[in-house]
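Lab notebook, page 48
Experiment: co-folding of the full assembly
Goal: obtain a model of how the components sit together before planning crosslinking
Operator: M.T.
Materials (sequences as entered):
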Amino acid sequence: MSNRLFLPAALAFGLILFGACRAVHNDYVFFAGYVVLQYVVLATAWNLLGGYTGYVNFGTAAFFALGAYSTVVLHKLFPLPIPALMLVGGLVSGIVGLGMGYLTLRLRGVFFSIATLALAVVAQTLITNWDFVGGSRGVYIVRPNETPILGSYVQYLFLAMLVLAVIAVATARAIERSRLGYGFAAIRDDELAAEASGVPTLRLKLVATTLSGAFMGMAGAPLPYYVTYLDPASGFSLAYAVNAIAMPLIGGTANWVGPLVGAVFLGTAQQIATVTIESALNLLIVGLLLVGFVIVAPNGIVGLVHGRARGRSS
Amino acid sequence: MAPPLLQVADLGKRFGGFVALEAINLTVEAGERVGLIGPNGSGKSTLVNCLCGALANDSGTVHFDGRAVDGMAAHRRTRLGMARSFQLPRPFAGLTVAGNLRVPLLYTAAHRGGARLSAVAIEVRCAELLQLVGLEDKAGRRPGDLTQVEMRKLELARAMAATPKLLIADEAMAGLSHVEVDDILALLLRLNDQGITIILIEHIMRAVMGFSERLVVLVAGRKIADGTPQEVIRHPEVERAYLGE
Amino acid sequence: MDLSYDLLTNAIVAGVLLGGFYAAVTIGISIAFGMLDIVNIAHPAFVILGSYIAYLLNTTLGLDPILGGLAMLPVFYALGALVYEVYYLAFERRGQESLRGLAFFFGLLFITEVALVLVFGVDYRFVEAPYIGPSLHLGFVGVPLRMLVPCVTALLMFGALQLFLSRTFVGRAIKAVSQNALALQLMAANPRRIKRTAFAISIATTAIAGALLIIIQPVEPSVGRDYIGRVFAICVLGGMGSLPGTLLGAMLLGIVENLTATFYGPSWSPAIAFGALLLTLALRPAGILGR
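Observation: model returned without errors.
Model output:
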């Protein structure tokens, strides 16, 4: 299916999904669904840099939270509608991604990864010490009264995140099949050989980092309106970093399907689990799944399915 | 008379206290076939890396096609027309054989003459290259499925995909059988016929002697001989360096 | 802000002592990452684990934490060997150590922290020992014993490891394998076994480092995260596998951190190490590239 067809098809699918959720007449579906869709964006964004280009980002929480906190700042200065907030969040996190990439991407991949860990802590420390956004005590955000278009505010947030998820997945798919995607794959497989083949590796890595960071920031932008109370501990939660890595690695990093599968599977499972088991135990299971899959099934669920299919046909 | 394609003047490279290359002077004219030989550790690969931009030379200058390329990133040198194959093949393991060729086609060939190659033109060129090296029926396979000699051919094909003016083949025949060596040699001669300047770095004497119009010898980071193969092998220092070989 | 020389001197002394301790925490990474090129970001998790075990031994058996750490050396050594084997079989052998190896260690870091939360909860834990509390007073400089004892222990551990690496066959083989695994193989030593020994040693050091940590400060599971930046910053500052470099880098960081904490408040401390790391990576690429 060509790119031109995929985007409208996916949007149509998304709208059908939205309609189905409305039919359930229970806002909880939208609450839970928002989180799953958020993870679809985070996982897809992570995979642009991780699975496609081969650079591991441990600082997902930083890009995500910076998007959330730009919304907090704007909320206090002059509130904007959600799509505009997403653009701002994306811009802020995209620039941070670019900056950080510029500082560290000339070095070996592992130094980039360690630097992303550093970034997460530095960003969290800065926000914790910034009283305008509430510092360590956190900040309360009041949702706007009028809801554009439809029923409850949560449904509106869900719809916004749904559109973002569709755009993120469609972008990943388009990149995969493009000249840019070939460049990324060459960098991932052998950066030295990629340079020798004419690939401007530094420039492409910066593109990947910026794009990945931007999508993460966009995913974080509506968060303050979703949770209504935001503090650095929850905004920068390690859960985001782990899930953003676990979901693509468990789903499969080779293409756009893996992160989607991983996010839906793991995200839904966690939403169900939070009701029944302790959140720490929940995260422990995610961590165990991550380690287990990485050791046993390095190509993820998608890889396993492909392996079966190939086995059957030969 | 046109300037030489490659002009290396007084090139030096050190790693900490170790002098890998010292005062290397080398000139290569367009269309030449130059052989580069030397004992292990003499600095041949370091020289290639400095020429292609994988390493930055500490002193001296490199001019390619009339332009100074010192400090230029490797990908830009490739786009100017300098291509190399790696001593140990470094394929893109996650892409198919054809995919491996698409990378340089997408990123280098486009830059010669301005406009990007269309998708159709890329596929045509890809098929041509695969045929040139005899890998047409392996187009959809992964590099992991290839034999040693097939990987070396892929390595050369990938360098060729960049439409180079100068091709540096770094020990492309190491560990191959007699017949396989002839195979690769024939390919390189074909390429030279098409006008591509070739620097061949090799240990296999009969290959390098038969192939080269000119032979350059590197020992312990210095150039000790530069002339026709017949002159060079009679050079006393060269004999000394290869005593016992 | 008054620049009181009393305060400044005390801050610097405390920083040096802190640095000694940081060196103890980092030495495992100097070996694992600096010499073996294994990016064990879970290293701080092992340190915290060491702290909790020292805590348990202290509260149930009344065992001095450092003795507890020493007692746990063989256990942590075995644990390190086990982790290396899994890492080798799953990643190094397949050549996938970059993406998946990193994810593996990140997973370990995460699992350890969450497991500790489940078992011990998020309350701070601390140990009791006769040297926690009193301080030496040299003029106007106060030297808390709970900082001095870990620093001295750290230096002893350093000395022991330095001797081991330069005098014993295994130690020298470890240094060799960090440079050229093939050459080592030709010397009829098994690189995999040497690496396993080295990695096991790096984890064994965390048993001691963990004990020292809980002497210096109360511990709760997320404390490990602050140390990720510190250990890698020190390792990079110190020039990767060099032990003396690690010690120097650790002291430097300890001093800078302590000065900042004294004059600007402790809430900035975590950022200092990471900021130092980012700056070092950005400004010193020539020293780190192409290893």
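Interpretation: The two ends of chain A are 26 Å apart (CA to CA).
Next step: discuss with group before ordering constructs.
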